[in-house]
Amino acid sequence: MERFSGKSIYLTGGASGIGRAVTGAFIKEGGTVTILDRSAAGLKELKQQFGEAVQCIEGDVTIYEDHVRSVQTAVETYGKIDIFVANAGVFDGFAKFENVTPEAMSAAYDLLFNINVKGYFYGSKASLAELRKSSGNMIFTVSGAGFYPDGGGVWYTASKHAQIGLMRQLAFELAPAIRVNAVAPGGTLTALHVVPPLQPFVTIADKEMKAKSIKKRNPLQIAMSSEDHIGAYLLLASDQARAITGEVISSDGGLAIRGLG
Ligand SMILES: NC(=O)c1ccc[n+]([C@@H]2O[C@H](COP(=O)([O-])OP(=O)(O)OC[C@H]3O[C@@H](n4cnc5c(N)ncnc54)[C@H](O)[C@@H]3O)[C@@H](O)[C@H]2O)c1
Fold first, then answer.
1. pTM, rounded to two decimals
2. Is 1 inside any structural domain?
3. Is the distance from the beta carbon of residue 58 to the nearest atom of ligand 1 less than 6 Å?
């Protein structure tokens, strides 16, 4: 089935993890994807894997001009943008607020909010005119941390709540032309980075420890992989979701029914 044949997607953070899996899924269903990411090595691999179906822009989501450059490339290469996926993000490693020095707190705030929040503002703004032309839609990668405590520390949790606020306000302002929704993955085995100012305050778990703790915390007991979230993105991006805006699909193994046990 080629649901995205002729569709052009602009996605941030596609060189790794969830963004990479979603990129592959769009391409498998006939779409073309323009990626903004700061990982030159990851982008090189993507290009080798997907060839003409992908355009790779090395840059930083905190720089508005890098989004503009990506949008221009998408339009020059594929003629338009139908879907914007805001996804590039970083983590705080569950750093405890009380333990972190004021200097590290401030530096972590700037870095994490610039990437996780300003990066989503910028991508939305830069792609907006093209999405208006195509009557397209936006999807934000949020997180269980956008609803519940302990999906990270204060920086990550607050940034994920902010992304949901941005998504809901944009869904309101941009209706009826453009739908805006989100996917909230639960703990997923990826290379998600802890911002450097917080590294001295966190214990970096190995993959096995991470998998165990993710499994323990969700009712379905899944240590999720990036591929587990693909279906939610494809649904929201497709015309099958034409009546859905301002919504979050939780793809988290059932955190909302965790109960008190
Ligand atoms: N891994 C999880 O447990 C989990 C759970 C819920 C939500 N998420 C969210 O999923 C999204 C993707 O994360 P992931 O887990 O796939 O991590 P990842 O590290 O595998 O992928 C993130 C990508 O974003 C890119 N990136 C980071 N900062 C950037 C910047 N300033 N400019 C350009 N590119 C940048 C990285 O190079 C990388 O390719 C994030 O928004 C994250 O918060 C992850």
1. 0.98
2. no
3. no
